[in-house]
Amino acid sequence: MTRRRSWPRTTGCPCSGRWTVKSHAQTVFKAVPDLHFIFLIVPSYMSLGSTLITVFNQVGNIPSLTYDEDFAVHICHRHSHYPQLHIRKARVEDHDDLVPIFLHHDTILKETYGEYFLAELIEAQDEENHAIVCEVRDEPPGGPLRERDDRSEQPWSRFAEHPGSCLPSSF
User: Pfam families under this entry (predicted)?
Assistant: First the structure.
């Protein structure tokens, strides 16, 4: 069985359900980080069934140049199954989003340095010390503060590798 045919064969099996189809979509998006869409093109008279319709949305029809029938175009979006983290430089406005995450793990920082320790650290960024935040779907759920580390070229390498996780893997 080739990789190209594994999706239709598995989803055509009566034992496969929504979980299997969603799992396939998540696996594909995880394996190919630059992939943002999966297109499925089928004859317009065909139904996707109750499992594929949970993952694919119809976006239109295209005419066939060689046959007398149209084809339905369906799309599966990455952000619905395996969203990407977007890493950016922290801003003072992120303080209210970040503090609950830090205080959930440890209150010693607040007790030692005061209520606005995080805002002060973010303001004190320079060429050697950076604060970064990760966002999922344009919502900043959190991020780590990190000093310059010459051993690591990618600041996001310290994050856990599951979707939506914005905590450093060391937490």
Answer: CFAP61_N (PF16092)
Q: Which residue has the tokens 């890493």?
A: 87
DSSP state at residue 68: S
Q: State residue 107's pLDDT score.
A: 80
Calculated CA dihedral for residues 21, 23, 25, 27, nearest 10 degrees? -150
pLDDT band (50, 70, 90) for residue 19: confident
Count of Cβ atoms closer than 10 Å to residue 27 Cβ: 13
Q: What percent of the chain has pLDDT over 90?
A: 13
Task: Report the C-alpha gap between 140 and 146 in whole angstroms.
Answer: 17
pTM score, two decimals?
0.51
* Four-residue CA torsion sign, 41, 44, 46, 49: positive
List CB contacts of 68: < 8 A, sequence separation 6 or more: none
Cα dihedral 57, 59, 64, 67 sign: positive
Rounded mean pLDDT of the chain? 74
Cα–Cα distance list, 93 to 97, 118, 120, 140 (Å): 8, 11, 12, 10
Strand partners for 57:
75
Task: Give me the residues paired with residue 43 across strands.
Answer: 71
Burial bucket for residue 78 (CB in 10 Å: 0-12, 13-18, 19+): buried
Q: What CA–CA distance (Å, rounded) separates 8 from 142?
A: 38
